Amino acid sequence: MAAAQEKKDGIGETIKTVVYALLIAGVFRTLFFQPFWIPSGSMKDTILIGDFVFVNKMAYGYSRYSCPFAICPISGRLFGSEPERGDIVVFRHPVNNQDFIKRLVGLPGDKVQVKEGRLYLNGTAVKVEANGTFSEIFEAQGPSRIQPRCENGPVGNGAVCEKSAFIETLPGGSSHSILNIATQGSDNTPVYTVPLGHYFFMGDNRDNSNDSRVPQNFGGVGYVPAEYLVGRADRVMFSSAGKSMLFFWTWRTDRFFKRLQ
Q: Is 16 annotated in the active site?
């Protein structure tokens, strides 16, 4: 009888330990840092398919979208602070409820336009400098088996896929890499005036990004309200180039703990 009671008590303690661990992990994920896996190439070459980034959820305060399934009983933002131009931000799409990661280029009140592939803010062209070529192997990438677009394409499987790289410097001094693939419709846009309480986002892989250049009613991101911001992506913690993160031979160890900018 004593042995049976001890076994029962042991099972009970194990269950309590698991529950406590899950609660602690949930609180940590909700309040502090949340990992996100990157499934697309819209932020190359800053962020690659298969990167796992940690998002600082304290950076902008908390909203209902800080919690899983948007269940936080918060109206607006709690302990909110303003994001900075150039931040890499994870946000919830206001229409389809998916998580997106893009770079913040337009603040409330800004006039944003793209002309001939170049970003203009408040009527002034943003500084851009050539930065060589970004090269990768043309092959299926990540679990979704996405094939990259190439400026030197079409190329065959296993060949080198190239894109022109540039360093873009935003007002305020934030600099980052951007890529060019082709001349296309998104290289020329009307002037967008960012409403108060909203933000304008673009991907660093400019010709391969669904972002604020396309309004929400046309399937794009449009202007993103402040309450939909989840947090700031500061660092890549882990990276895998293969179909599964368990394929250790595809790990990109040079990207482990890489700081994002």
A: no
CATH number at residue 112: 2.10.109.10
Residue 39 belongs to some domain of the structure: yes
| Number of domains the chain contains | 1
* Residues 182-215: tens digit of each pLDDT: 999 999 999 999 999 999 999 999 999 999 999 9
Full residue range of the structural domain in which residue 51 is found: 32-259
Please tell me which residue in 40, 44, 57, 102 is annotated as part of the active site. 102
42 a catalytic residue:
yes
Residue 178 counted as domain residue: yes
**The predicted structure's pLDDT at residue 24:** 42
- pLDDT exceeds 60 at position 116: yes
Query: Using alpha carbons only, what angle is made at residue 114 by residues 190 and 93, rounded to the nearest 5 degrees?
Result: 80
16 half-sphere exposure, CB direction, 13 A CA radius: 6
Model pLDDT, residue 27: 46
